[in-house]
Known about the structure:
Blueprint: H1 2-32, E1 38-40, E2 43-45, H2 47-51, H3 53-57, E3 66-70, H4 76-87, H5 92-95, H6 100-103, E4 110-111, E5 115-116, H7 117-123, E6 129-132, H8 141-145, E7 149-154, H9 157-170, H10 180-189, H11 197-210, E8 214-218, H12 219-224, H13 226-236, H14 243-252, H15 255-260, H16 296-309
Parallel strand pairs: 3-6, 3-7, 7-8
Antiparallel strand pairs: 1-2, 4-5
Helix pairs in contact: 4-14, 13-14
The protein binds adenosine-3'-5'-diphosphate.
Family: Belongs to the sulfotransferase 1 family.
Subcellular location: Cytoplasm
InterPro entries: P-loop_NTPase (IPR027417), Sulfotransferase_dom (IPR000863)
Amino acid sequence: xxxxxxxxxxxxxxxxxxxxxxxxxxxxxxxxxxxxxxxxxxxxxxxxxxxxxxxxxxxxxxxxxxxxxxxxxxxxxxxxxxxxxxxxxxxxxxxxxxxxxxxxxxxxxxxxxxxxxxxxxxxxxxxxxxxxxxxxxxxxxxxxxxxxxxxxxxxxxxxxxxxxxxxxxxxxxxxxxxxxxxxxxxxxxxxxxxxxxxxxxxxxxxxxxxxxxxxxxxxxxxxxxxxxxxxxxxxxxxxxxxxxxxxxxxxxxxxxxxxxxxxxxxxxxxxxxxxxxxxxxxxxxxxxxxxxxxxxxxxxxxxxxxxxxxxxxxxxxxxxx
Length: 321
Ligand code: A3P
């Protein structure tokens, strides 16, 4: 009798301990996800990047680092997979060694107890592929001091806005996107993670005019003629690659292949961070999907505002191919 009562107490204690651990975890996750963005030098970033900003600012680039820079949803994962293939002589098995977010760490992504891009990069061997979504003025100084090569990929604003809206819904680090119309309003105002698309694409475009180490690519060109664009990348890196290897790269990095490859489609990311049942990361992979999302009125308003924001720039985008 005595023993069984003390066993019961023990069990209750353990249950209470377990449930308090679970609720603490839930609380801490709630404290991590869906929080408001924080201003860092005029750019809206995740709260946790803002808190760890000095780590990002002081990132130590190496001379042979290659920086892959994009505004979110512009083809980052696609060009990352292409580069990892080039770096590994199109050895598909080598490229499947780990998830894309570990092969090409996202430098400024710091989320307590979840991920730290700066620390991840310190662990990987050179030559490193480094991903960033930072606007050009926030790129850590050491990249410029070391004369690192950089590849920027830009995608037309309308498709980016649509892709970003679906991504906001499935990737929990972002604040709630609200309705499509509300999200579009925030996108146009630059009140989304990594700030204004307009400033981002123009900032990198201008930087390119004085920095020959920057290759500026367009998602739409990659869709139109991936072979031509992959060859451009190879030339920029100063590499010699056979036709056979180029064809292997093209096959492995096609949307169809990347969509079903767990090491490139982000399904290896824990489900509480990205919920693919809401919207898959590899969603459509086309140019011109905005036509299925924008109303006529939204499109007219967007075009008018676009003309104003992009006035005077030589940067031209195609919204369909
Ligand atoms: P959609 O949401 O329009 O489908 P990022 O990697 O910068 O986050 O960009 C993600 C976008 O690139 C998604 O766009 C995704 O489907 C698309 N994408 C990824 N791999 C691709 C590929 N191999 N070819 C074409 N588009 C690709």
